[in-house]
Amino acid sequence: MAGHLAIRTVGIVGAGQMGMGIALTAASRAALPVKVFDKSSQQIEGGLKLVASLLAKDVHKGRISTDESKDVHSRISVVSALDKLKDCDLVVEAAAENLLVKQSIFSALSQICAPSSVLATNTSSISITKIAASVARPEMVVGLHFFNPVPVMKLVELIAGLQTSPSTLSRAQSFAEACGKEVTQSADVPGFVSNALLMPFLNEAIMCLEKGVATKEDIDKTLRLGMAHPMGPLQLADFIGLDTCLAIQQTLHRETGDDKYRPSVLLGRMVDAGWVGRKAGKGFYEY
Ligand code: CAA
């Protein structure tokens, strides 16, 4: 993409598994310099460790040389404040799945970044139009929904809010493609295509467990071996994070009023107990 519309520098807000996965993919596949901000130094530390281990694995497997790995690493820098993202042409927000958190980040970014920049959110269920309502130029805001693990999953879901401009949409799409992803487009409906379909499925599996229909192992095995899913639904819910699953389901349920999205009682209890999945060391399984 030529001239002032080219994406030359990428900003990432949030150094969790999604934010760091996007940072690594942009720095390696798209060969772009990436600046990462997170208010938690612990998150940053964990995120950098993840990047280092994934690059070391690629070197070990002979996919990239040590020099290439160093180049990728050197393209990722950590910044200490949000306003250090001011020269980024595109910022991807990958913070907590919470409307108020996202609105406050976007409101700040819209004042910090140039009017020509693209402000993308990696939200899995919150309305792009709602997030854009917190900024002076809602046409800059777009949904770019990556999947976990970002370096491995081939898809990015692209979502236009009601006010997203065609230029913002096409620049966000070009960025995702430069990252080596296939792009599908979804309307700004709760959960978009991906989670409107995935969440009732995961919830149904949790309700099967709750009702004692089968053991967790057999529920997962049924889907893995019977339907060739790479992970069973309970394993996948643990992988996504049960807190994230609950937040998405609550948004879907609240926004549609449809009972098919009502989170199961067991899911809520698991989150209450702090057993939120792989990242906590315990969810439906122990890690
Ligand atoms: N970060 C980066 N790479 C990772 C990773 C991680 N957290 N976890 C695994 N990988 C990589 C491995 O390093 C390995 O890469 P190489 O082939 O380059 O060595 C590759 O994934 C395969 O890993 P493994 O061989 O260890 O294990 P596997 O074959 O069982 O695959 C998996 C692991 C790719 C995660 C696979 O189980 C899978 O595809 N699971 C389903 C994942 C899925 O559905 N994700 C979407 C969740 S929904 C979402 O993210 C969006 C939302 O809104 C909720």
From TrEMBL:
It holds the Pfam family 3HCDH_N. SUPFAM superfamilies: 6-phosphogluconate dehydrogenase C-terminal domain-like (SSF48179), NAD(P)-binding Rossmann-fold domains (SSF51735). The keyword Acyltransferase does not apply. The record marks H145 as: Important for catalytic activity. GO terms for molecular function: NAD+ binding; oxidoreductase activity, acting on the CH-OH group of donors, NAD or NADP as acceptor. The keyword rRNA-binding does not apply. Residues 191-287 form the 3-hydroxyacyl-CoA dehydrogenase C-terminal domain. One of its GO terms (biological process) is fatty acid metabolic process. Pathway: Lipid metabolism; fatty acid beta-oxidation. It comes from the Eukaryota. Keywords: NAD, Oxidoreductase. Residues 9-186 form the 3-hydroxyacyl-CoA dehydrogenase NAD binding domain. NAD(+) binds at G14, A15, G16, Q17, M18, G19, D38, E97, K102, S124, N148, K279. Belongs to the 3-hydroxyacyl-CoA dehydrogenase family. NCBIfam families: PRK07819.1. This is 3-hydroxybutyryl-CoA dehydrogenase. The lineage of its organism: Eukaryota, Fungi, Dikarya, Basidiomycota, Agaricomycotina.
